[in-house]
């Protein structure tokens, strides 16, 4: 239940859009419903605690963020990068989700149609995935510096005055990992899988695809094409 708060986002978006959530699971019993919401609450509390510790460390200057960057700027950069990484994560899910949709349904949403036309042209999908991974790696490198704590044990500057043992746990960076997993990935994946056409209708999606294609065209990670072909030959993969 550590990550159950993402289901709350799915439920909220379904309520807002009026789209029912499709599921092959049988209806939950009263006990399962209670257990489900207890896990959602637990997940929200854990996520809130992770944010509290990370933000407190940022304003105390106790993270690995580069010197000279104000705490407020670090928070803004963190939020922007989390949204951008989440957008790219969701784009991948949404693009695969609309592959089998009727052309007429996509044509009714101009931005989504244009994004799909660009992504599925020639070998653009593979190129997009390569460029996307470059962008995600760069963004997560910065996010890791923002969210990883470097409090020196034994100086009495522990976050919220916790014990040295608990501070050592904070310093591992696991709290930041929880934040990035939920806020920078799973929430966006849930939204994209539930509402792929609406997700791809975001104008930023088309721009991001172009940026990813440009990054791939620079050749920084062109070795992935060669390694991919070798993997295909060795494993004997065939197109679906």
Model description:
The protein has 240 residues and is mainly alpha-helical. The protein has 11 helices and no strands. Helix 1 crosses helix 2, helix 3 runs antiparallel to helix 6 (124-147) and helix 6 (124-147) packs across helix 10 (203-217). The longest helix has 30 residues, at 30-59. The protein is globular and about 60 Å long.
List key phrases describing it.
240 residues; mainly alpha; 11 helices
Task: List the topology elements.
Blueprint: H1 5-17, H2 30-59, H3 71-97, H4 103-107, H5 110-119, H6 124-147, H7 164-171, H8 174-194, H9 196-200, H10 203-217, H11 223-235
Helix pairs in contact: 1-2, 1-8, 2-8, 3-6, 3-8, 5-10, 6-10
Order of helices and strands: HHHHHHHHHHH
Structural class: mainly alpha
Largest sheet geometry: none
Per DSSP E runs of 2 or more residues, the count of β-strands stands at 0
What percent of residues adopt helix (DSSP H or I)? over 70%
Query: How far is the first residue's CA from the last residue's CA?
Result: 35 Å
Shape: globular
In short:
With 240 residues, the protein is mostly helical. It has helices spanning 5-17, 30-59, 71-97, 103-107, 110-119, 124-147, 164-171, 174-194, 196-200, 203-217, 223-235.
């Amino acid at each position: 239940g550590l990550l159950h708060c993402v289901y709350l986002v799915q439920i909220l978006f379904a309520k807002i859009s009026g789209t029912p959530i499709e599921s092959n699971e049988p209806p939950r019993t009263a006990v399962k419903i209670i257990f489900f919401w207890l896990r959602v609450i637990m997940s929200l509390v854990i996520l809130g605690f992770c944010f509290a510790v990370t933000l407190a460390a940022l304003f105390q200057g106790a993270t690995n963020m580069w010197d000279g960057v104000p705490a407020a700027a670090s928070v803004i950069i963190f939020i922007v990068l989390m949204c951008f990484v989440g957008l790219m994560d969701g784009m991948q899910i949404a693009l695969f989700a609309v592959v089998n949709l009727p052309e007429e349904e996509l044509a009714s949403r101009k931005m989504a149609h244009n994004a799909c036309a660009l992504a599925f042209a020639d070998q653009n999908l593979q190129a997009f995935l390569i460029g996307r991974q470059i962008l995600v790696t760069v963004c997560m490198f910065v996010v890791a510096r923002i969210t990883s704590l470097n409090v020196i044990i034994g100086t009495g500057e522990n976050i919220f005055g916790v014990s040295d043992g608990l501070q050592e746990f904070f310093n591992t960076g696991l709290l930041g990992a929880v934040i990035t997993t939920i806020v920078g990935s799973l929430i966006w994946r849930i939204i994209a899988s539930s509402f792929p056409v609406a997700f791809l209708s975001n104008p930023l999606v088309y721009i991001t695809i172009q940026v990813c294609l440009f990054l791939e065209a620079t050749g920084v990670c062109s070795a992935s094409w060669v390694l991919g072909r070798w993997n295909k030959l060795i494993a004997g993969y065939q197109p679906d």
